[in-house]
Each structure stands twice: as C-alpha cells, then as structure tokens.
Amino acid sequence: MSKPLTGTIALVTGASRGVGRGVALGLGEAGATVYVTGRTLSGRNPDLPRLAGSLEETAEEVTRLGGRGVAVRCDHRDDEQTRVAVERVRAEHGRLDVLVNNVWGGYEGLHAWDERGRTWGAPFWTQPLSLWDEMFGAGVRAHYVTSSLCAPLLIEARGLLVNISFFAALRHRGTENIPYFLAKGADDRMALAMANHLRPHGVTAVSLYPGLVRTEGVLLAPEGAFEFSNSESPQFLGRVIAAFAGDAGRLERSGQVLVAAELAEHYGVTDVDGARPRSIRAEYLP
C-alpha cells in the first residue's frame, strides 16, 4: 500500500480509543508520524473501566500499519500539560502538518452510565451542571487551547486543522442534550473563525462530521440501541482525513463543515471492510 503521508507530522488528541484512535490509525496507515495524546498511557482508565484502549496500544498499531506512533500522556483539561505535549512536537520536528482536535470529555457520562448518561435526553434543568463543563472545558476549550498552541507549527507547515464535530450542531431536535448541541456548534464556528485567521498563512481549518461510529463505547450500548447497517469504523474517519490532508487544493474548503462520508465519496475512500458509508446529513436537516 502506498504511503502518501510519509514525512507528515500529525497530532491527534484523545486517541487512547474511539474516534481518536481510528484517526491515528488512518493517518499511520498513510505513513504519517502521529503523536497521540490522552489520559490513558497504558492499561485502563479507572474512570472508564468498561472501555479498553490506551495510548501505547494506539501508538504501537500506528507503527504496525506503516507510520510512526508516539504516545504522549496529556490531560487536555490542564493547559500546561497541553503546552508540554505541543512543545515536544516543536522540539522534535519544528512543524506540524495535521492537528486533529478530537478529545471530548462530554461522552464520559454515557460510557460510565452514571447520572450524566442516564439523564442525557432529559430536560436540561434535571441534568447535572457538570455536563456543561465536560462539553466545553474538556471539549471546546481543549480544542481552542491546543489550536492556539499549535498554530505557529501549523503555519510553518501550511498545515491542516480539523475539529471533530457532529450533526447535533445542525439543529436542536427537542430531545437533544443542550450543552452537547451548543458545544458542537461552537466547534463548527471555531473552525470557521480560525480559518479566517489562518487562511493568509496557507493553513486549512475545517470541522468534520462522522456518521455513526463503531467505537468501543457504542458497541457496549444495549442491544437495539443502534442500527449499524450504515455505520463507520473509527479508522474510516482517519482514512478520510488522510485523503483530505493529501489534497493540494484543500485550502479552498477552509472554514467549512465537512461530512466524512461525503469526502470519502469524493476521494474514493472505503472503510476497512471495503464498504463506503452513506452521509446521514438528511437525517439532521429540518
């Protein structure tokens, strides 16, 4: 298999498992050196005992697929830890070609199935106030801080910044979790605003929507909770980002909200099982 991203330096946040791990694998498969951050360096995260996955495992798999994986423990709720992680990339390479802001504390209640998960679709006044901080502090703010620290390195490389978002930002469907709805919308607007700042420097910034992803947490959901016929592996999103990163004309899309399945159609990307998932955009439009 060709390695079109050989020599590319990437940073994927929140890559112990789930979408972040899949993104790292997709980039590694294309030959990139991928720095992966998260809280679980090895073993299991005691806060999420039901979910397997660690940074060391992700980095090893990135390397096995033909890239180079580098595990960096980092709690992105702590700005200093984020700074240290970014400084390591700077010291070792002096540039960053791809930043994928994926880390997201907002799903932890669902994975732990505690009060936050049990009240996910309940009226907002009955939900724990901590949901707001998890969506914005361990999500939107973490994306902003990481982007701010990485911007000079991205400018050096005329690179690519991707915020992983979701269709929940498109409209409020009555039962949507309000902090979740607002946070995903904020991620989209952040990508637009950052694109305006970065475009003169040749840096592309976008927001990217997956469909239903077969993450470890989703696969633990009760039987019948999801219909998987049009679902995506986590690695599918990584393959799509790898294809987009290799597109010399990507700057024309800067500031846009993109859909992984639609980009896959454009670039001819398939999932690990050979399938090409369909876009679910129509399910979320008014």
Automatic annotation (TrEMBL):
<dbReference type="InterPro" id="IPR036291">
    <property type="entry name" value="NAD(P)-bd_dom_sf"/>
</dbReference>
<dbReference type="InterPro" id="IPR002347">
    <property type="entry name" value="SDR_fam"/>
</dbReference>
<protein>
    <submittedName>
        <fullName>Short-chain dehydrogenase/reductase SDR</fullName>
    </submittedName>
</protein>
<dbReference type="Pfam" id="PF00106">
    <property type="entry name" value="adh_short"/>
</dbReference>
